[in-house]
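Protocol step 4 of 6: structure prediction from sequence.
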Amino acid sequence: MVVTSPGLLRRNRDFRRFWTGHTLSVAGTHVTAVALPLLATLTMDAGAAGVAAIATAAYLPNLLLPLLVGHWLEQRRRRRILVATDLARAAVLLVVPAAYLLDALSVPLLVAVAFLVGSASVVFEIGGFAYVPTLVDEEDLGAANRDIQGSSTAAQVAGPGLAGGLAQLAGPALAIVIDALSYLASAIGVAGARRSEPAPPQPEQRLGIFSGIRTIAANPFLRALTAHAMLYNGAAQILTVNLIVYAVNDRGLSAGMYGLALSASGAGAFVGTMLALRLAGRFGFGHAFAMSLTFSTGLPLLLALLPGDGAVLASGFTAVMFAAGIGLGSANVLSVTLRQVVAPGALARTNGGYRVLTFGVLPLGSLIGGLIGSTADSRIGVAVGTAGLAISALPMFARRIRALHTPQDAKPAPTPNPDPVAAAR
């Protein structure tokens, strides 16, 4: 399997600039998610209700906007829009330190800022997904996604700690200023790409906002990927709600050791992103995907069965989370690449549909996890959550997916042209 020639970041200046901007943007998103609630807590003594309102406002656009954004982006060039969303996020965030200096900060203001920044982030993520295939050649998509997923994983792991460190050293208001500057730097990086962006294809008929979901439902590969992601995300929420109670309260794991285990998951995900293309090159794309899912969805089943306590239990948690993270990082690279290859003419629409379906299950998973934990116990909740993760892999073990040698094998067969002689009759 030929996936790419080496050194995409080194040899493709346009992609390198986009990648730099995208990495800064993702880091900024994770810093914002922590910095705004910290600001409310440290400067306004906001309680749990205020912090929850800010967090909900930041998350809500992922439920409300993807279908509309995907439909809107499908017929537009994306680079300028990506730059505009970065500039918009920077401008909105700078309202916060200005209000701080004017003694005009309030929880409603931070809620509004969180919602606007979250909305712009939805536009950036959907637009970026659709823009990458126009920036690199198709044979380099795997390498591009590896690099993007790798830096995104690193930013996701480092973002919360960076936000806390900035708030500690410079104060939460100045941390927001630095966050805004990261979006300005991202805008410069994305704007620096010079490769001509082709005009998006114009559909032959008018398409509604639900056309992305219809495309997913009609394509067996997109259908399997979406079903897997929905089941995985819902089960992951059940697991997350119960795991901290089970590990810390029921099993006596210290908060520090629990945090170390979660960090190991992020470290494993970074390793997995770096291994994904090697696995696909050696075993074939479909088999590499199956191997990755075996790690990411199968190994967590051990969490409810780990023996011991203290350092022994912490070591077991850390090992499982690290190994599962490797599978998750690899699966993410392969998933994004497959989605970009099988629907090249509907990337924004299908990504909008994919996001609304896969994000929409998160509150339901949290609700179910809370009900299980409160009516049964946290260990049952962990067992149910990890069983759900394992079940989520089943759609991806279909023969048509396992048989893929390259992602290009999943492309729909071209419709044959009609016989011109027969048509003339």
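Step 5 (inspection) to follow. The chain has two domains: 14-191, 211-409.
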